[in-house]
Amino acid sequence: MADSLNAGTSKAGSTQERHALVLIAEDEPEIADILAAYLTRGGLHTVLATDGRRALEMHLSLKPDLVLLDVQMPRVDGWQVLSEIRHRGDTPVIMLTALDQDIDKLMGLRIGADDYVVKPFNPAEVVARVQAVLRRTSSQQPNSSNRVMRIDIFEIDLDHHEITVQIGRRAQLLSLTLTEFKLLAHLARSPRQVFSRLELLTNCLPEGDTLERTVDSHISKLRKKLEDLGVKGVPASVRGVGYKFGSTS
């Protein structure tokens, strides 16, 4: 089954999900076969990589819609694979691991995993999680013509540097500084990823700002503006790590 495509025939799920390609990066053949069978039954296409290096090669060449990634992979481990995938872009990644420790889950979320499944798992639940992540990430993709991201109650216009919040039936345009806009937009691109202060400093703040605690100040002001509108939990703090987009629900 290694490195083979399996076309799904099930009509379950949305059109987006039925056409999605899932890269299974798993070196245990029995687990890989079970996952491929359930995903195919769920209307998804699958391709298999049996080591981390091959997973990276296939991710680059096939551009899958989602990666199911085992942590303990030969040649290149799952953490390194995840880090490289995140360096390349925002392909959704669900980690598969026998490690049920908070530090491992925190590391996965810190690097940018979209979800985390501990072995042994129910394969039907894995399929449901894959479909949920695909639905969520497809709804967050910027429109190619006007580059607008829609996530939760936020509409983020990347070209015009405007963010609108839907408060009940009323759309409220946020009055943000350029730095505040960049911070919120950066977090929104990967809402489950936890970004360190250094990452946010490098990507969102002016070149003259060199102190990580400056990020805290900008985040605090951004959060206050949202709280004044009744929006709580955005951005969310992750103690000892940094910030992520958060959720209003």
How would you describe the overall organization of this protein?
The chain has nine helices and twelve strands. With about 250 residues, it is α/β, with parallel strands linked by helices. It folds into two domains: about 15-140, Rossmann fold; about 150-245, Winged helix-like DNA-binding domain superfamily/Winged helix DNA-binding domain (Arc Repressor Mutant, subunit A, Orthogonal Bundle), CATH 1.10.10. The strands form three sheets. It has a five-stranded parallel sheet with strand order 2-1-3-4-5, with helices on both faces. A four-stranded antiparallel sheet has the order 6-7-8-9, covered by helices on one side. A three-stranded antiparallel sheet has the order 10-12-11. Helix 4 links the parallel strand 3 and strand 4. Helix 3 (about 50-60) packs parallel to helix 4 and helix 8 crosses helix 9. The protein is globular and about 55 Å long. About 35% of the residues are buried. The model is unreliable at about 1-15 (pLDDT under 50).
